[in-house]
């Protein structure tokens, strides 16, 4: 039977974050006391004005097929958002709407990559980036960052990673999984490198744009360096900013010929995203933005709680992220120690497995994101659960010998 399946499947692996979340749910269903810190979605409900817009769309019969890559009204709202928030001018025919940000990225890679094409991906990275590149026939080139640089790619590292075969840089700020955010000055250093390599395009994943804390100010590559406008795909969505993960609406803006190619692929795969979700997204972008302003300080308080508690755990060092709702602590101080059951902590995957087994806390091991020895915590849950989970992590680390 294995001969029946495509050999492309040999190049990719299932999403570790989804697998771990499913394992946590399975243990919970079996009666285990499990706290899942693995899923990357806000715990808040979708705002009422957005839900009302979806209900109104249903009542108005807006439940038919739409244009393959989105209704005009949503594309106009996206253009207004880019102008309002990022100072970027796009026309509706430069916009693509898909069933989530993941499909936007996948469409772009499928539309542009040929065998041998390389895509530079800073690590730690969102788990799906390398596998999407592989599915599209390209070659991921991982550029490791470090905790010493705040998990940020330096200009020298980017320069070293670029070859004549490089087609894209995938850029994510604030980052999943580290929460690292690039200042305008830091981003300018990277865009200066890209200006020297006109064959390299930028695919920028801005999904966590509105989750920026303290003095950190979000900016996006085409905003920082307008000369890159014609070779930048600016990707965003409503999932994180408006607690709409299940509505599945992602979008991007870029050059017309790229957007047209992405439209062609989508027209022969999923066709249009949910019509009702599109109308909800119109309200999300055009309506009151109160949710963003009220949720941001809640996430910042949770960040501070988690960072403070994890830094009190023996063998763990947890930097303070600039945005998103993740922390990416190092467990370098735990490597080589053993659990009470005699299991040696040889990797972050072993650490995460034993933590779930002994304490019922589900986290995602760092190897899934391409940089070890670390693990990712999503703090998109209540202070009560976070306090309980971090206490359990402290207890687990204290028992390691």
Automatic annotation (TrEMBL):
Its cofactor is pyridoxal 5'-phosphate. Signal peptide: none annotated. InterPro entries: Aminotransferase_I/II_large, AspAT/PAT-like, NHTrfase_class1_PyrdxlP-BS, PyrdxlP-dep_Trfase, PyrdxlP-dep_Trfase_major, PyrdxlP-dep_Trfase_small. Residues 33-393 form the Aminotransferase class I/classII large domain. SUPFAM superfamilies: PLP-dependent transferases. It comes from the Bacteria. The keyword Magnesium does not apply. Homodimer. This is Aminotransferase. It comes from Neptunicoccus cionae.
